[in-house]
Amino acid sequence: MCVATLITGLIFMTSGKKNISKRHAAVMLAATLIVLAAPGKAVYAGLTVDQLMQKLAAVKSSEARFAETRHSQFLEKPMKLSGKLIYEAPDTLIKQTTRPLNETFTIKGQRLVVERMQEGKKLQHEVGLHDFPALAPVVLGLRSVLAGDLKTLEKYYDVTIQGSEQDWTLRLKPRRHGFEEDDWLKDVVKLVTMRGQGVLLSQVEIIEPSGDKSVTLITHPDRR
């Protein structure tokens, strides 16, 4: 199966829209990967990026609830999803959507598994990240956030941050030379903005050059 067909199939499972672009597919996958933790590049309020990365790398597992709103030219109205996020160091992220559908994305190592219940049957699709030469840099770059791997993160993104340890805003802007020579990939993401407190992320916004965007609110009930 070709990459374009596979991407379209996965996103059709998610949204019910067959004509969603590969660019939107990358944004939706990216949103899955950055909702639990985030480092910064600059020094702020006495905290260096290395100190923050060490704190994030020390988080071996976590769970959170999410409420995501997707705005897209391919959707008649904003799509709202909610469910649970599970992170397990060093390379596993599980996104369990419970409303308005039952669907699970699992990224572990170099594998991506998508599971969904349809008409009482469990459908499963598994692919390797190497099967996505256009999406792999997005996945690897964003997953480096969870691992506290600044070197890999900066390979793909310019990183800036504002605020303090108690209330910070992180911005990731794709580096043009960091990605492969797929013209459409260079325009996958315009800007990623993340807000959080300490090592807890509270909001993620991903904006495409087209203006399409995804906004995810994250809560941590067990860490209040």
What is the topological layout?
Elements: H1 3-15, H2 22-33, H3 49-57, E1 61-71, E2 79-88, E3 92-99, E4 103-108, E5 111-118, E6 121-128, H4 136-147, H5 150-156, E7 157-164, E8 167-174, E9 191-197, E10 200-207, E11 213-219
Antiparallel strand pairs: 1-2, 1-11, 2-3, 3-4, 4-5, 5-6, 7-8, 8-9, 9-10, 10-11
Helix pairs in contact: 2-4, 4-5
Terminal CA distance: 46 Å
- CATH architecture level-2 label: Clam
**CATH fold call:** outer membrane lipoprotein receptor (LolB), chain A
| Helix-residue proportion | 10-25%
Strand portion: 35-45%
Concise description?
With 224 residues, the chain is α+β, with helices and mostly antiparallel strands. Helices cover 24% and strands 40% of the residues.
Characterize the structure shown.
The chain is α+β, with helices and mostly antiparallel strands. The protein is 24% helix and 40% strand. It has a single domain (3-223), classed as Lipoprotein localisation LolA/LolB/LppX (outer membrane lipoprotein receptor (LolB), chain A, Clam). It has helices spanning 3-15, 22-33, 49-57, 136-147, 150-156, and strands at 61-71, 79-88, 92-99, 103-108, 111-118, 121-128, 157-164, 167-174, 191-197, 200-207, 213-219. The protein has an 11-stranded antiparallel β-sheet. Helix 2 runs parallel beside helix 4 (136-147) and helix 4 runs antiparallel to helix 5. The chain is globular and about 50 Å long.
